Amino acid sequence: MDDVMSRDLISDLPQSIIESILTRLPIRDAVRTSILSSKWRYKWATLTQLVFDEKCVILSNDRCKVEDGLVNFITRTLFLHQGPIHKFQLTTTHLQCCPDIDQWLLFLSRNDIKELVLELGEGEWFRVPSCLFNCKKLTRLDLFRCEFDPPPTFKGFLCLKSLNLHQVLVSPEAIESLISGCPLLESLALSYFDSLALTIRAPNLKFLCLEGEFKDICLENTPLLVAMSVAMYMTDDIAEHFEQSSTCNFNRFLGGVPRLERLIGHIYFTKVMTLEDFLLHTPI
């Protein structure tokens, strides 16, 4: 009985189970397990999922101190990490445009990254570095408040299944090229885009969420689409475009979705215009 009580049962668990336990902890707490014993010093260092958020740093009224603390913690964590990193998530209001992020992404591009989520705070927008487009194994990409400018040689993410772009500065041509360059894409979310005319070609797409000022939406090759949510902001310019255009019609919009099971639509008017007026001026 005494032998059982004195044994370190947790340390003797298989590494896969220990990693599963550590993954459920905030990353700061997972790293702090290194002080438990010599056995635990680098247990956390092989985690394949790294999630950094507001819990990673001690809050203070000194913004620079908080930002420096967060940058140093992430940099040190990546420096000590061993093996592949399949998921990297950074969700924080304490960082905006930061040169260290470029170095983190370069490191991740060399470590088999599969899921990448970047949600930074308000302020100067972060410009996505070219090394991101070398992440050939990406299956999920979520970007918030950044500039996205693929190089001319970029042909797409061949393994990508989920794409979420929120308040991202990118040309319409680049979005369409990106979508068509992801042949396995199953889930697509685009939000807060201005005056965008978009043609979507995604043969494996199943879930689509659009929010913003869209002048035109054409679903050209989406035979597997089953669920769609569209929230349109009807500004003066876009309302005039709908009134004058003969190409903006719902047949063209919904004609290519034979398997559609669920459709949610919202139209938000920014000028005095009734839904009846809108429908009367919009070809069906």
TrEMBL record:
PROSITE patterns: FBOX
Domain F-box, residue spans: 7-41
CDD domains according to UniProt: F-box_AtFBL13-like (cd22160)
Pfam family, one: LRR_At5g56370
Database matches in PANTHER family: F-BOX DOMAIN-CONTAINING PROTEIN, F-BOX PROTEIN-LIKE
Protein's recorded name: F-box domain-containing protein
